[in-house]
Structure formats: C-alpha cells, structure tokens
Amino acid sequence: MSRKKFIAGNWKLHMGQEETQNFIQDFLQLQIPENREVFLCPTYTSLAIAKSLSKNSKIKIAAQNLSQYSTGAFTGEVSASMLKELDIEGVIIGHSERREIFKESDDIINAKIKSALDADLRVIFCCGESQNTRENGDTDTWIKNQIQSGLNGITSINNIVIAYEPIWAIGTGKTCDSAEANRVIKLIRNTVLELYDKTSAEKILILYGGSVKSSNASELFSQSDIDGALVGGSSLKVEEFSKIVQS
Ligand code: PGA
Question: What confidence score (pLDDT) does residue 130 get?
C-alpha cells in the first residue's frame, strides 16, 4: 500500500511569536509536494499566530502537549477543547522529553491520547528506547509495551500517527541507521496488526525521529515502512526544514 509522507517540525521551547511569524511567512513560499502532509508544532503561545498565518495553506498546526483533563483545578494545563478553539489540527503526545523530564507515565499518555481523540485532534504518538535499553537488547519489548499501553482501550486509530524516536538519537546528531529504524517501525506496524487489523496496520503512518536533517532524510524516507519524520533541531531553520519536506 502506498502511504503519503508526513513531516512534522517539533519546535520544542523555541520560537516566540515574532520568530514564528517570520518562519511561516518564509515557509509559505515553499511548494509542498502533493503527497505530503506538513505539520508545524510551536509552543502554546505561538499557536494562534501560526494558525492564522497558515490559514488557506497546506501547512497544518499541532500543539506539543495537552492536558488529559477537560476542565477544573489543574493549574498550568491546556485542554483538548481549548486547542480545538484555535482550530489546531493535532498534538504531539508521549515525547521522550515529556516522559523523562515531566514524568509522564504510560497511563497519563494513554489518557492524553484519549482526550485528544475525543476532541477530534490528530495525535502524533511518540515511542522510543534509551541507550541503556538498546544495549541490554530490550528495544523490541520496550517499544511493543509502549505501543500497547499508549493505545490501551482505544478502538479507532484513524487519527493516530506514530513516531519512533530512539532517545539516544534525539538532539545528539546520532541518527539511527535507516535499516534499523525501518526494522523497529515494522515491529510497530506488526504490533498495530496484532492490536487492530490488517487495514489499520497498512494504513497507519509511522515516522522516524532523532537527528533527522536534509542530508539523511531521503535515505530514511526511501525505507519501506518509514512514512516521514518528526524533526526537532532541523525544523527551526526554514531552508533546512524545506529541504526535508521536499526530500
Ligand atoms: P531532533 O529532535 O531532530 O533535534 O533530534 C527530534 C524530536 O525530539 O522530536
């Protein structure tokens, strides 16, 4: 089955409103190829300006996080319906930085995915192993567990894109070998097959993330099961990100 390519720029804690505006104005000049979906994921405070500048373009906007709660006494949180109010199309959930630094457990991630899907947001659901887990030979079990726990109780995965991001490759310049990334992504696709059905497994988009740059994007995208990329550092420069989108 031929799947389209999906490229998302995860800006993390970078790009205030002015930088967002400059980026998007330049990025709008880019002809996004037909079979590609492109998301930018700015910080909460840059979402509204990003959304208004990219209206009527092929650029879609996603948040980097959301609350698993819909309303109430949860200081500092932002709900799925608040993102919908801004017409945001998606949200990243389960990024290793959220898991490690902000102690988000598999249960929290599962609740966040449910909350996003209930609000009709696209979910970019991240998984990935640490250097230690890999060295101990536990990568496959680890990834399978993360997928099973994250998707627990979720009946339809039509609105989910999965991103495989080995933690040791994030922001380190050490890209995972493309054949190895493809192998793990196939394992994720098989896990989806076990949990759902053949059509879901064939249709779901699974991205690679971790030191993706214009010089390695084509090689990664040429693999049978890699459907695109979740890009951190290289998504902060219009020229570099544009090259990745066109790879
Ligand atoms: P990186 O980050 O491209 O800077 O390695 C990827 C990510 O964290 O999503």
Answer: 97
pTM for this entry: 0.97
In three state form, how does the secondary structure of the chain look? CCCCEEEEEECCCCCCHHHHHHHHHHHCCCCCCCCEEEEEECCHHHHHHHHHHHCCCCEEEEECCCCCCCCCCCCCCCCHHHHHHCCCCEEEECCHHHHHCCCCCHHHHHHHHHHHHHCCCEEEEEECCCHHHHHCCCHHHHHHHHHHHHCCCCCCCCCEEEEECCHHHCCCCCCCCHHHHHHHHHHHHHHHHHHCCHHHHHHCCEEEECCCCHHHHHHHHCCCCCCEEEECHHHCCHHHHHHHHHC
Query: What would you report as the CA-atom Rg of the chain, rounded to the nearest whole angstrom?
Result: 17
Q: Give, for ligand 1, the residue of 92, 174, 231 to mutate: max count of ligand atoms closer than 8 Å to Cβ.
A: 231
- Reply yes or no on whether 77 is catalytic: no
| Residue 53, both tokens | 């500048």
Name the pLDDT band for 47 (thresholds 50, 70, 90). Answer: very high
**Residue 165 appears among annotated catalytic residues:** yes
For residue 13, report the distance from its CA to the centre of ligand 1, in Å: 12
Minimum-distance ligand 1 atom for the alpha carbon of 230 = 9
CB 213 within 8 A of CB 178: no
